[in-house]
Amino acid sequence: MGKFWLTLVLCFVSLESQANSRLLVAVASNFEPTARALIASFNQQQPSINIALSSAASGTHFHQIINGAPYDIFLSADTHFPQKLHAAGYAGEIRGYARGKLVLTSKLPFEYQQAIQDIALGKARLAIANPNTAPYGLAAQQVLSNEHISITPIQGQNVGQALNFLTSGAVDFAFASLSQVLHRHDIYWQLAPAVHDPIDQAAILLAMNNADAQTFWQFLSSREATAIIVAHGYEEASVD
């Protein structure tokens, strides 16, 4: 645990040193590109507030926070982990900010049902995010269960790593977030059927007394932020 904590602290110091950051935001891997677009827009209005992002699976961030990681805001890929933090005594405000969409992806054109058959028969390799820590991995697992597919896919630590397995050629297909591939020209995708739990993504404001965190928090619910989120492949938040 000592080595883990030392590595974590050094990581935070490095992030803050490089970005001269006042705010540290934990963000689910699927939402990182969108979060960077939000920060760019935010900094046009508030150039003096610098924000450093830490991207990982939501479950990973949850465990970092309860072990003392000094995040100001946590943008989770579900509602479960923010609610668990609140139940554990983190009295920050919780707010839904997006609903995600699960897609099956490939480097080549494909038809969804044929791809599912090939995966089920072991003719194609599949990657998903870890369903124990990544909400998009859990959704992918639910899709596979609905199709009665019992294969063991390659698991990434988060949905970003699952997609990296695809782009590196390690697998033929990967379940990912629409936002990760919507604006890419090297990845083909098909929406997964809605047989999984809704991927309602919620955030928690951990630094209630930090004025800069409060300013960014309010921006996240603005019309401008919502437009950016929708343009990156999400639906508007349906939870509070």
Structure explained in plain terms:
The chain is of the alpha/beta class. 42% of the residues lie in helices and 21% in strands. The chain has 10 helices and 10 strands. It has helices at 2-19, 32-45, 58-66, 80-87, 112-120, 135-146, 159-167, 178-181, 211-220, 223-231, and strands at residues 23-28, 51-56, 73-75, 94-100, 102-106, 126-129, 154-156, 173-177, 188-191, 199-205. It has a 5-stranded mixed β-sheet with strand order 2-1-3-10-4, sandwiched between helices. A 5-stranded mixed β-sheet has the order 7-6-8-5-9, with helices on both faces. Strand 1 (23-28), helix 2 and strand 2 (51-56) form a beta-alpha-beta unit. It is globular and about 55 Å long. It starts with a helix and ends in a 9-residue tail after the last helix. 44% of the residues are buried. Mean pLDDT is 90; it is low at 13-21.
Characteristic terms for this protein:
240 residues, alpha/beta, 5-stranded mixed sheet, globular
